[in-house]
Amino acid sequence: MNYFRTALLLAALTALFMGIGFMIGGQSGMVIAFVVAAGMNVFSYWNADKMVLKMHHAVEVDERQAPEFYGLVRELAANAGLPMPKVYIINNPQPNAFATGRNPENAAVAATTGLLDMLSREEVAGVMAHELAHVKNHDTLIMTITATIAGAISMLANFAFFFGGSRDNNNPFGFIGVLAAAIVAPLAAMLVQMAISRTREYAADRMGAAICGQPMWLASALGKIAGGVKHIHNDDAERNPATAHMFIINPLSGERMDNLFSTHPNTDNRIAALQELARETGGGGGASFSQTQSFAATPNRHGPQQGPQHGPWGGGPSEPPRRRGPWG
Known about the structure:
Layout: H1 2-55, E1 58-61, H2 67-80, E2 86-90, E3 97-100, E4 108-112, H3 113-118, H4 121-136, H5 139-163, H6 174-212, H7 215-231, H8 235-239, H9 267-280, H10 289-292
Parallel strand pairs: 2-4
Antiparallel strand pairs: 1-2, 3-4
Helix pairs in contact: 1-5, 1-6, 2-4, 4-6, 4-7, 5-6, 6-7, 6-9, 7-9
């Protein structure tokens, strides 16, 4: 079903791309747009994940560079029955995270330094379990390709004013067609992003809660991330708004409520759904991550400190936080 849905998405975005070409350059413009869209679909399948990671200046880390974070992802992936994904850190103060990759065998998860700084270990586990749920559901392919093509559609619409509407091309609509393409195309691309994001996030929340075993870990994390996003600007996300739907919380400024133009469900609604899930499952939904893995037994710096800590979360109770790896 996921592959069928992906094919439908690619067809819809390709048709939209061709429609823009027709409105700008007539039949010849439509043919050129089809060729470009076909090439972009193939390129996106193999390379879109790398492009998105590069857009956000993500740096790959290993167990030596980020032992706690890498170990956490490895243990959660084992819980989910997934291959070990590549692990990335984004040097950005805004707390956020996303997953990418064309399939579970070629997946990557990325978290910002802001997320690792602000959240407890349990909350980070909930967030990364959510991202691994996207991998397990094969959401990452559709998310990444959508980000790439939606960005291209918006860029083409911006170019429409410069290359369309002149009398020496085959544009049957003239300047009206160019204006319509410039306005309608980005809106249509955004609607596609919103359509796939809303139901996808709820499903990933639920599966992520099952992977880590504690719905309230993710619920607590969502509240902290939403608060951080409101106050901390993400320059890379603002420059690449087509990738916004990939993050666990919309990273763009101006995110408000669960309305027609929101790329994500309302955070309060997501938290309420996780609280209801916790009640249904008696608070856990199975053995929790902290009960089955040694990682969560280490005290976190957001609660009582009883010993030293290691890894990207900082030092012990009597020493300032320290970071390891390329993000510090």
